[in-house]
Each structure stands twice: as C-alpha cells, then as structure tokens.
Amino acid sequence: MNKPHEFFRPDLDAEDLDACSKAIKRDLLRILEPNSIVLDVGANRGQFALEVIEVFPEVKIFSFEPVPEAFNDLKLLGSTYQQITPINQAISSQVGSATFYVMESDVGSSLLEPIANQPSKWLTLNKKVTVDTTRLDTFVLQQKLDTLGTPIKLLKTDAQGADLDVIKSAGKFLNPNSIETILVEVNFKNFYDNQQSFHEILAELDKNGYRLAWLYPHRAHDEWLWWADALFISK
C-alpha cells in the first residue's frame, strides 16, 4: 500500500537531475549567445553558473548568494572562472538587510521560514543569519547594465519560494527588452510560510510581456510533480 504523501521525502532522484540539466542546457543554446549577461539569483555554490559556462564560455554571470558558507565556495569558483562575479547578497523587494533561514542542506535556504517538521534536510532549519539585500533594478542601475545597448539575456532565480519578490524587484526592467528570458523555480506544494505561487508568478510575467516556453519538472519520491524550473520568453 502506498504511504500518504506526507511520508515521502521531497528529494530528487538522480535521473530527474540529469534529465533536467540536459534539457536546460539544450535550451540555453537557444537563448544565449557569446558575451551574454546572466543574472544568477540563488547561486549557491555556482552549479548553474558552471552549466552556463559549459554551454557558452564567453559569458558574464553575476551570481548572488547570501549564505556565508556557500558564498565562500562561490568566491573560490569565481577565482577560477573569471566569467563569474560572486555577490554576497540576497535579492529582495527591499534594499537593506533581512533574516535568512539556512537549512541543514543549504540549497533549501530562503528568506522565507520553512514549514515545520518536514523530513528533508533542505527543509530543516539549521540557523538564522542576517544578510544584506538589494533589488534587481538597483543592481542594474549600479552596474550600468541598462546602458550596454543589449538586454540582459537571462535572469535565473532559485529563491526557494520567494521568487516573485525577485522578479518584481526588477521594477521597470521587467520586460523582454531589458531582461530577455527568465528561468524561475516554481513550486506546486507548500514548503515555506508565505510561499509565492506558480499562478502569481505566471500572472506577473504574463502582464509584463513574457510567455511560458517550457517546464523542466522535478518529481519527488511519490512520483508526483512538486516543483519545476519554468522558462519564460518574450511573447
């Protein structure tokens, strides 16, 4: 007899990881080009940045990671790969500081507090830290990315349930002429308090000129879809 869904650990099977990685790389070839600018929000230790560099070595990646231990590894990676600029900040709706919830497996860390008593290490709270926060539009202006004459090719955001805030923080730059494509993690099950929904993200991007182009699904051990990476391109 199958167990209730609550007893399954929401971890990925290796097969899912490999399949998603291959599919994302396939589409990176379609949306990126040499010398593209990529914003990598929730970079962790640079896993996605390395995937991008594997597809297009001549890119410029701004990688945001607020968790101290993960950022230290990201900084080391940046010393090897000059394409990566590590930034020790979280992207949020506000410029300033905020409490960040660091999980036992820090890939699940978030500005949102995890729902209690979840079995996975990436949803089990280890500690709270105070991190610096900024907005995407503030960063774009500071770096003068709006003056380059070409759009930011890709915004990738994996903010563990807070991705709508990341997207909205782009402000006036949330349009395909400024940020051409967006790859965002969307959740179909609640993992965090005040988690932002797929429907809210879809509506926000739809009204700003984007359409859903592809879903890269992640299944949990119960074989149901729990979350996915969603690619949005210009309508």
UniProtKB/TrEMBL annotation:
One of its GO terms (molecular function) is methyltransferase activity. Residues 40-212 form the Methyltransferase FkbM domain. It comes from the Bacteria. One of its GO terms (biological process) is methylation. SUPFAM superfamilies: S-adenosyl-L-methionine-dependent methyltransferases (SSF53335). The keyword Oxidoreductase does not apply. Coiled coil: none annotated. Keywords: Methyltransferase, Transferase. NCBIfam families: fkbM_fam. This is FkbM family methyltransferase.
